[in-house]
Each structure stands twice: as C-alpha cells, then as structure tokens.
Amino acid sequence: MLQMIKQDAVTTETIGSPTAYKRRVIALETNLLLRNYTPKSQLIVERQFVSAPRFPVVDAHTHFGPMAFGKDYQEAYQLESAVAEFRAMGVKHVINADTIWGEPLQRLLEFLQPYPEFFTTFGSTDTSQLDHPEFERMTLRTLREGSAMGMRGLKFWKNISLGQKDLQGKFIAIDDQRLSPIWNGAAELNLPVLIHIGDPAAFFEPTDPCNERYEELQNHPDWSFAHAAFFSFSELMDQQERLIATNPQTTFIVAHMGSYGENLGRVSEWLSRYPNMYVDLAARINELGRQPYTARTFFEKHQDRILFATDAAPGHLDHLHYYEFLETWNEFIPYSSAAVPGQGRWQIYGIGLSEDILRKVYYQNAETLLANGKFS
Ligand SMILES: [Zn+2]
To answer: Which of 20, 92, 295, 349 is the right S-S partner for 56, CB 3.0 to 4.6 Å?
Structure first.
C-alpha cells in the first residue's frame, strides 16, 4: 500500500494543469487508508533538547518479570545490560511489579538479587480462590510469605474486574467485600497496592470511526470492553473510588493517572478526598500532554502524590519523552518514538514544571513512601 501511495503521490510537476492535479489529489484521498496517513508537521518552533532528567529518577512502574516477558523472562534479556540501560536514562531505582506469588516470586527476587539498590519488587496473591472458605487465611499466609521474601508491595490489574469470574460466573468488582482480606493484609504489612483495573475510557466505547483509540483497538481487539457483559467504565471508576474510600489504612497507587487521565478533574477530587491514594503517570503522557494547562495545574495541586513511572520493560524504554514533557515548554511534540503514535493520533505539549515539583515527582514522593517503610 505504501508503494501505491508513493506512486500516487502527486505534485504540480508530475501532473500538467492545476485542474488535473486537483482531480488526482481527490482520487488519492478516497483511496488513502488511515494506517498510511503519516502527515509530516510543517510547524517551525523552538524545541528544547532533553537528553537526561533534571534529577535522578525513581521509576515507580516497570516490569522485569513474567508480566512482560512470560515465564522464560530470564532468557529474554540480560540483567546487567538491562539495569545499565535504565541507568543510562537517569533512572536510579525502579519498582518492578508482577502479579506472582510463592515460588515464582521467590525466583524473580533471586534473579534480581544482584542489584538490591536498584530494585523494589511488588508481587501479588491468588484471587482465584475467592469463594474458598479459607480465602482469608490463605491470603494472609501468601502476603506474609511474600513480605518475608522481600516483596514490598502488591500489584493487581484488570485480571480482576474484567477477567476473572466468581463461582456464580460473575465478574468481580474491585470493591467486592470478599477481597477485603487482601487490603487488610496489605495495610497490616505496610504493602502499598499498585492497581490498574481498566482504562482508557475509549476501550469501553464501540470500535468505530468515532473512537479516538480506533487503530489501537483494531490492532488489539481483545483490549475492547465495549460489551454489556463487562462493567461499564463509569461503574469501574465508582468501584475504584469505593475501594479507596472504604480502606483508608491501605495505600493505593492507582496506576496510569488513577485510570482516568482523560478526566483530571475527577482524579483531583479523589486525591483531595483520599489521603491514602497516589497516582503514577505511567504510559499516560499522551493524555496529560494534550491538556497541558489542566495537567500543569493538576501537578501543582497534587505535587506530593504523583509518582514518576513509565511502565517500561528492558529493551522498551521511552523515558526521554517523559522528561521532555515534564521539564520543557516544547510544543506539538511526539509522546513516543513510534512512527504512528500508539495511544491516539495526536501530539503533546510540555508543562515546564518547577525544579521543586520535578524533585518530588522524579524521586522524593517515592522515597517518602520508602522512608515510611512502605517500599524497601
Ligand atoms: Zn504495567
């Protein structure tokens, strides 16, 4: 198809009269597929180059284990060069999150053991036995064992809420009372909970020409939850709020801008209301950077509760885009290195944060949690 576009690309030099030229342009437009539309910006504007973060960074959301690489993760990359790759990007410490427990968690911790100053690892617990009469006892045992092994927090994602079903065949709301032993155990053992139960909002809308994440959903049809069988996005957000509200002793880091980067007003209300809530900005500079004025105000207001994060895994680092977004006033910049941006076809704008806020977001907020004994 690209070939065809090249052949069809027209200029006034290749076509004779202006009328013939216009006719060819109209014909080309009708044949152009969305995936072949890669416009080149003609904007000429100053752009500040960023090659490193202003301060050393704690990346609060990364994946070095089975979540990103499957069970053979130890063969998928070389640990020493992976750590060097992150350090070269100015990252001094990472939270490595995985939904494993027991022996697989033990193996992951041992694998990462050569770099104790670099890794904090979050694990998980088995929720598939939710209806077992001993669920509470089993959960507490798993959490205590994990904690004793060196696990410093818990990770849950949309496998609850949008994947797993209970014995009645129903999806499990994240604020379901049966999950309480997990949140109580996390509070008792000082394990913050990194959680992601479902976003972006567009994944809950039909995959049609109006969907702002159309191409992404075309490429990953299984990411669509636009079906009556699933909880709606607004139900999920209400469940998430109730979870945080009813477990004030448990610290929740709600990944990806609280799962609602499209609506920072709502996230701001949550942060104001619930002191046990933090957000990470992993994989959401696409959302933040398309609303730079709102995002900047949000960062100023909630500067103590936002954690720098990228959702990166070895071999897939995109940190410079984050630094450029947070530190500069650059305009109409890409949010990733992909030729066609993967999370919506738009560009973003930098928010020029002050040094004080950058320090907090880059490492101080994460380290405050560390100092509280909540990380490592
Ligand atoms: Zn992740």
So the answer is: 92
CA–centroid distance, residue 60 to ligand 1 (Å): 10
pLDDT at position 6 over 50: no
Distance 133 CA to ligand 1 centre (A): 31
Whole-number Å distance, alpha carbon 311 to ligand 1 midpoint, is 5
Q: What is the DSSP string of 217-269?
A: HHH-GGG---STTSPPHHHHHHHHHHHHHH-TTS-EEEHHHHT-TT-HHHHHH
pTM, 2 dp:
0.92
Q: Write the secondary structure of 58-91 as one string of H (helix), E (strand) and C (coil).
A: EEEEECCCHHHHCCCHHHHCCHHHHHHHHHHCCE
CA–CA separation, 267 and 302 (whole Å): 10
Contact 287, 346 (CB under 8 A): no
Q: How confident is residue 29, by pLDDT bands cut at 50, 70 and 90?
A: low
C-alpha span between 40 and 330 (Å, rounded): 17
CA dist 128 and 160 (Å) reads 9
pLDDT (mean) for 160-185: 92
Superfamily of domain 57-371: Metal-dependent hydrolases (3.20.20.140)
SS3 state at 279: strand
Distance from the CA of 89 to the center of ligand 1, in angstroms?
A: 19
Ligand 1 geometric centre to CA of 26 (Å) = 43
Locate CATH 3.20.20.140 in the chain.
Answer: 57-371
- Distance from Cα 369 to the centre of ligand 1, integer Å: 19
Using alpha carbons, list the distances in angstroms from residue 39 to 36, 166, 181, 246, 325.
9, 48, 52, 48, 22
Cα of 63 vs centre of ligand 1, distance in Å, is 7
